[in-house]
Amino acid sequence: MTVYNLPTVNCKLPTNLKFNNRNISIGENVTIGENVRIGDNTVIYDNVTIGDNTIIANDCIIGEPLADYYHNENYQNPETAIGKNSLIRSHSILYASVITGEGFATGHRVTIREKTTFGKHCHAGTLSDIQGYSEFGDYCRLHSSVHICQHSKIGNYVFIYPFTVFTNDPHPPSNCNKKGPEIGDYTQIAVHAVLHPGVKIGNNCLIGAGANVLHDVPNFSVFAGNPAKYIGDVEEILSKETGENHYPWMNNYDKGLPWEGLGYEKWQEKQ
């Protein structure tokens, strides 16, 4: 690892960049790994660590200062870290104190606010808005235009589809303690779902398109409708193509997942 202390613009990094290396601003105490490529017009603030083989595309901001920066003369940027082998696409903004695991990726124009942590191999799709103070496990996938409220907690292998909204204020606007939804492992949340403050959705659940989820959802449940109601056991859903059980979905989908080419059950046996 090489440490740069370069509060300058138009700095030239000693790497073979794919980009034009124009107008890159890097703050103090920034640690940049091997084979990192940084796009034009990108700003990297103080106390950022970027893992090996990571690509930061054009017009990104990494380590965006928190609100105190504008009022406190003694402000110090908290640590921000991007794991190795990550890809941050253009116009994405990661606030200071965001921590990602290896293999992290964003679409374009993604905003990730402070105190958010990701496990390994998570994806946040184009125009997604993560409001901070939230936790993600491993291999989570947010498709385009997903809104995650503060204080949400998402497990491992959770897929969240476009235009889903998480909420955390039980009586907006209020001074109540905010509590976002909690999502269990392997759960799928379909398009346009709305999750209300503090709801807990179990493992291996399916939340239907347009569902308005007001109450907790048990493991292996299908909930749909407005308000969302129990429809049945997820393992009762049959594939329209084969007529066989589609869920647990891990037996029928493996692209980019650790059991790819091996099969979920065999992969589980090796864990």
Count of DSSP E strands?
29
Taken from the alpha-carbon principal axes, the silhouette is globular
State the helicity in percent bands: under 10%
Biggest sheet, spatial arrangement of strands: 12-14-17-20-23-26-28-29
- Give the overall average pLDDT: 92
Order of helices and strands: EEEEEEEEEEEEEEEEEEEEEEEEEEEEEH
Low-pLDDT regions? 1-14
Largest sheet: 8 strands, mixed
| Strand residue percentage | 25-35%
**How big is the Rg?**
20 Å
Q: SS-based structural class? A: mainly beta
The total of helices stands at 1
Distance between the termini: 31 Å
Describe the model.
Helices cover 3% and strands 26% of the residues. The protein is mainly β. Strand 28 and strand 29 form a beta hairpin. The radius of gyration is 20 Å and the shape is globular.
Task: Give me some keywords for this one.
mainly beta, 8-stranded mixed sheet, 7-stranded parallel sheet, 3% helix
Strand-helix topology:
Layout: E1 2-4, E2 25-26, E3 30-32, E4 37-38, E5 43-44, E6 48-50, E7 55-56, E8 61-64, E9 80-82, E10 87-88, E11 93-95, E12 105-106, E13 111-112, E14 123-124, E15 129-130, E16 135-136, E17 141-142, E18 147-148, E19 153-154, E20 159-160, E21 165-166, E22 182-183, E23 188-189, E24 194-195, E25 200-201, E26 206-207, E27 212-213, E28 221-224, E29 229-233, H1 264-270
Parallel strand pairs: 2-5, 3-6, 4-7, 5-8, 6-9, 7-10, 8-11, 11-13, 12-14, 13-15, 14-17, 15-18, 16-19, 17-20, 19-22, 20-23, 21-24, 22-25, 23-26, 24-27, 26-28
Antiparallel strand pairs: 1-3, 28-29
